[in-house]
Amino acid sequence: MPQPSSAPPAAPPDGRERPVAHAADLVVFGGTGDLSMRKLLPALYHCDRDGRLAPDARIIAVSRGGLDDADFRGKVDAEVRPGLHAGDAAGWDRFLRRLHHVCADVPAGRDAPAHPGWGRLTRMLAGREDTGRVFYLASPPMTFGPFCRAADRAGLVTPRSRVVLEKPLGRDLAGARHINDEVGAIFGEHQIFRIDHYLGKETVQNLLVLRFANAFLEPIWNSLWIDHVQITAAESVGTPGRRGYYDHAGALRDMVQNHLLQLLCLVAMEPPSRNDREAIRDEKLKVLQSLRPISGTEAARFTVRGQYIAGRVDGRAVPGYLDEPDDTPPTDASRHVETFAAIRAEVKNWRWAGVPFYLRTGKRMPDRRSEIVVQFKDVPHSIFSGGVPNRLVLRLQPGEGIHLLIMAKEPGAGEVVPRPVPLSLSFADTFHARVPDAYERLLADVLAGDPTLFMRRDEVEAAWGWIDPIVATWESAGDLPEPYAAGTGGPVAAHELLGRSGRAWHEEDLP
Ligand SMILES: NC(=O)c1ccc[n+]([C@@H]2O[C@H](COP(=O)([O-])OP(=O)(O)OC[C@H]3O[C@@H](n4cnc5c(N)ncnc54)[C@H](OP(=O)(O)O)[C@@H]3O)[C@@H](O)[C@H]2O)c1
């Protein structure tokens, strides 16, 4: 078996201090899947290039596919390298030499014999018990518990081991508790890293710095000055080939329960007493516990669900959800699943009383855009005509950055004409550095053992506790989601959700 190169990792490209190189074995269950190929392996390559992996760190993919190490390296070389713009051939070769593949399946039942692949994995890890060990579960959620048990039975779980759980963690509170119990029976909570990749985005971390490292915002970060908050995660893509997954997930479970609620927490949380993993997560939990429950008739008033029908995106005709090409034909579940969800949420505490938090996410929207918009109240008395209240836009994608829309006078003589203009901070332009992908940051945190940007069990369960009654109301109503044409901003009811109080979704282009 080829051994990893002992050549030292390259220095960081932008001259920053050399990061800590972590001695670790990463075992990726589901290491040949879509997530691994598109996100994890590119992120690990960048970690390697920046010197975060020790010379002997290995990446061991586990799947049922009958690949050997050479096959797997060939697959990664063919599928991952083209997307990387990796000009560093030596660095890429070093990365490839770190890769291994083990063919193993989870046992069919609790007492079923282990697949022979577990023997190989055990031999590969033998003698390295003192090296950091990360089990990354990039496989279907129902395999999380069985994988952890199988690793435990094979004697692979050491006190220094960590486990990373991909989202979604269950389909409801009961399912999440089940997975948490199964994984928690093997790993301590301090070893469990529940990933929400939105938390690894630069803008999201910058939100904490913006709020808690600048004095000017805190006095106005409340219901006296803020009219409402909008949190949008829009995608222009549809769901071709993903019906099997999406029919059972839907936008609410897929995006709102995790990503959007996490963003809401970071906007609404109280200042933590220190920059500390538990202090920050304690404050986020309090926000989730303060969300006003939505169920029954309130769900009809404060939530919207839609499903896209045929339309045009980027000038291209695209089919509706039910007609997306897929091996699985549409079922009744397909007709009922929402590809768009919008909610008017409220945080019931002193800071936020009466401030709506509008959440929305959808497939086949006009463009791909994730952002948080904090809409301030208007000036108490305007002496100019045509004023527009200030707005703070935190753009997560595309083009991570922060924009503060202020009023400025249009240049020229004559009447003073105020116009909203953005004060813009683009992270890429300002810091002249590559903005790392969220997975890169989060994998580096796992290697460093820092769970601050990962969800604690109580957070995940509190989020499901808020989502479950909405799902239950939708399911008991039995009606279909409201159709919206692909390439539009969602169903009519989503605009009415804000329109009823004289508000509108922000759609403007920013630099
Ligand atoms: N793809 C994304 O963008 C994305 C985003 C967020 C979260 N996630 C989550 O990440 C996980 C993986 O998603 P994915 O899209 O990468 O799925 P995928 O493309 O279907 O890949 C699943 C991987 O798991 C392996 N696998 C499945 N069952 C297995 C078993 N019983 N024993 C061993 N290996 C098994 C598969 O290989 P074999 O079939 O060859 O065994 C494959 O490597 C899921 O939990 C998903 O919800 C994915």
From TrEMBL:
E.C. code: 1.1.1.49
GO cellular component, one term: cytosol
GO function terms (MF aspect): glucose-6-phosphate dehydrogenase activity; NADP binding
Keywords assigned by UniProt, alphabetized: Carbohydrate metabolism, Glucose metabolism, NADP, Oxidoreductase
Top-level taxon in the UniProt lineage: Bacteria
Active site: residue positions: 259 (proton acceptor)
Domain Glucose-6-phosphate dehydrogenase C-terminal: 208-506
Pfam families assigned to the protein according to its UniProt record, in alphabetical order: G6PD_C (PF02781), G6PD_N (PF00479)
Domain Glucose-6-phosphate dehydrogenase NAD-binding: 27-206
Residues binding NADP(+): 64, 105-106, 167
GO BP field: glucose metabolic process; pentose-phosphate shunt, oxidative branch
Binding site for substrate: 197, 201, 235, 254, 363
Keyword Glycoprotein attached: no
Keyword field contains Cell membrane: no
Enzyme class, first EC level, given as a word: oxidoreductase
Catalyzed reactions: D-glucose 6-phosphate + NADP(+) = 6-phospho-D-glucono-1,5-lactone + NADPH + H(+)
Pathway annotation from the record: Carbohydrate degradation; pentose phosphate pathway; D-ribulose 5-phosphate from D-glucose 6-phosphate (oxidative stage): step 1/3
Family recorded in the similarity comment: Belongs to the glucose-6-phosphate dehydrogenase family.
PANTHER family associated with the record: GLUCOSE-6-PHOSPHATE 1-DEHYDROGENASE, GLUCOSE-6-PHOSPHATE 1-DEHYDROGENASE G6PD
Role, per record: Catalyzes the oxidation of glucose 6-phosphate to 6-phosphogluconolactone.
HAMAP family listed in its UniProt record: G6PD (MF_00966)
Protein name: Glucose-6-phosphate 1-dehydrogenase
Provenance organism: Sphaerisporangium krabiense
